Amino acid sequence: EHFAGIHTNLDWVTYHCQKSLALIEGDNPKLSEAIQSLGESVKTLDECAQGIYATL
């Protein structure tokens, strides 16, 4: 149950990263790169959480 919650929260982080990138629209390349890296990291964490959840 808790891993489903983790997945839901990580979906929200991904959503907000995408929205932030849309707002920035390339005006600040370093910030865009940081947000993209955060999004990629969140995807990796989500995959790990889903893998753990699948084994329970």
Task: Characterise this structure.
- The protein has 56 residues and is mainly alpha-helical.
- It has one domain (2-55).
- It has helices at residues 2-24, 29-55.
- The chain is elongated.
Q: Largest sheet, if any?
A: none
Mean pLDDT: 93
Order of helices and strands: HH
Structural class: mainly alpha
Number of strands: 0
What fraction of residues sit in β-strands?
under 5%
Rounded to the nearest angstrom, the radius of gyration is 13 Å
Structure in a nutshell:
The protein contains 2 helices and no strands. The protein has 56 residues and is an all-alpha fold. Helix 1 (2-24) packs antiparallel against helix 2 (29-55).
Please render the helix and strand layout as text.
Elements (H helix, E strand, L loop, with lengths): L1 H23 L4 H27 L1
Keywords:
89% helix; mainly alpha; 56 residues; 2 helices; 0% strand; elongated
